[in-house]
Specification:
By secondary structure, the chain is an alpha/beta fold. Helices cover 40% and strands 21% of the residues. It has an eight-stranded mixed sheet with strand order 5-8-2-1-11-13-14-12, with helices on both faces. The protein has a four-stranded mixed sheet with strand order 6-7-10-9. Strand 1, helix 2 (38-53) and strand 2 form a beta-alpha-beta unit. Helix 3 packs across helix 4. The longest helix has 25 residues, at 90-114.
Amino acid sequence: MKAVIEKAKVLVEALPHIQRFRGETVVVKFGGSSMDHANVVRDILEDVAFMSCVGLRPVIVHGGGKAISAQLKLKGVQPRFVRGLRVTDDDTVRVVEHVLNKGVNPELVHILNELGCPARGIHGEDILSVEKHRDPAAPELDWGWVGDVTAVDDLPVRAYLEAGITPVITPLGSDGTGQVYNVNADSAAAGLAERLRARKLVFLSDVPGLLSNPDDRKSLISTLRFSEVEDLIDRGIIGGGMLPKIGGALKAIKAGVRKTHIIDAALPHSLLLELFTDRGVGTEIVADE
């Protein structure tokens, strides 16, 4: 009986959060090593299905880096990364497009529909306009067909949301000539959240959140204010693969997204714990009061 009562307390704790977020758009980005584990993927999608069922409007942006690298190796192509971005030549971009649009995306859509959550895939190149990625600090570097988002056609996404359908979007873009570009999934999610004026932007990561000591998973920073970020970057606490997430989070907050979250994809039902409990389980990034 005690266990049953504890479950009821969890539901009661979730109630005000459900009421507050009903009808609001939440952009969820996931990828990385979490996509290598079927049970983790299913946990995440169960959370998304729950969110949809209680009235939230989730939008998924997914990666597929490990699957892409595996397919490239089968073709004898060694994956190459520069400053955290995949160098994408002609052969690589074809593999990226095929794996994301024909493999990962349909599988995620299938699982969501199986869970009773109506979902449809959207190829990112159909809605994300991009320009070739360049680094002003290193103009000699060339990543090939890697793009930065310049505009988002949100009409197909909004149409699905209005129909009660969860959009599942690949991080690809187009420059308008028909050329497909590989897009950093964190940046793609941030661009969508900004355009959709999402209530929340959630990055599912390989770590519990932002750590003050990268070697200590218990050093979680629960809340980070906009004005504190620059100092943490200067001190090296924020770096590497966390930079695109933080950069996207700040851009989204500037555009009106209320909060962004970084949470551990491997923690069972971390999405629900972060969104529907009082304390949460990851790092939330908020605007200065």
